[in-house]
Amino acid sequence: MKIYRWITILCLAGLSLPALPVLADGKEQKDGKRGCAEMTQEDRTQLEMIAKVLAEGKAYAALAFLDAAKLDLPVARLYRAHALRQTAQFEQAGELYQQLVSSCVGGLAYQGLGLLAEMQEQHETAIGFLKVASRMMPVDSKVRGDYGYALMMYGDHQAALSELLTAIELDGNNRLAIHNLIMLMYKTGQDERATQLAKDFSIAEQHLQEIRQASGLPAFKVNQRQQFSLGGCYGNTQLCTGILSPRLEAVQ
């Protein structure tokens, strides 16, 4: 498997974790569920440290810290599930995520189940879980981006485009969603648009080559790359400003 594909899957799978959820207020949420019970500052500090370790890709260390902390909290169990997934302990991770879907971190648990399925190339299953997660967390850029990636890998390019654009408009710094949008352009034969996106978002030439190869296409030839580097902004909202145009369409 190409190195970049591993990077993409691992990032998708949670190396770039969301910030520690706001769990302390216990207020009624819009979906009718209550937030998680208030935690102590000590517990919060430990969980923030574990989240940082996970974000650095040190899943085995995160498991060790979770064992030492002995925290029986939904967030701690969610992070354990993340760490188990990242260490390919899929069955145990799946069991933990399933236990959490009706908890105060239910949306993140569904996201985890989707990522778990996607890592095993079970694209249709992943789509089902991530669709639920996106409904529960509709303005979470990472969830929408993950959903878009799964749709792209399943072959539903138009739906994938919508989700990836949503993810980027929600968070213009979501580099994974940007990379996957470029990959989608390559997969749908829109090489010039892919190149323009890379230019607009300052994607390095090496990374662009890796994205192209991960999409299943060969690397650029030098003269081919020079040809595609020409051109300016496009779309009614001027894509090069970072505001993505809803008129951008994927070729089926």
Can you walk through the features of this model?
The model is unreliable at 1-34 and 222-252 (pLDDT under 50). It is elongated and about 50 Å long. It contains 13 helices and no strands. Helix 1 (3-15) runs antiparallel to helix 6 and helix 10 runs antiparallel to helix 11. With 252 residues, the chain is an all-alpha fold.
Low-confidence stretches: 1-34, 222-252
- Overall geometry comes to elongated
Strand-residue proportion = under 5%
Q: Summarize model confidence as the mean pLDDT.
A: 79
Our count of helices gives: 13
Helix content: 55-70%
Distance between the termini: 26 Å
Helix/strand-derived category reads mainly alpha
* H/E element sequence: HHHHHHHHHHHHH
Task: Give a brief description.
The chain is about 65% helix and about 0% strand. It contains 13 helices and no strands.
Throw out a few tags for this protein:
252 residues, mainly alpha, 13 helices, elongated, disordered N terminus
Draw up the topology in text.
Layout: H1 3-15, H2 41-55, H3 59-69, H4 74-86, H5 90-100, H6 106-119, H7 123-136, H8 141-154, H9 157-170, H10 175-187, H11 191-200, H12 205-214, H13 222-228
Helix pairs in contact: 1-6, 2-3, 2-4, 3-4, 4-5, 4-6, 5-6, 6-7, 6-8, 7-8, 8-9, 8-10, 9-10, 10-11, 10-12
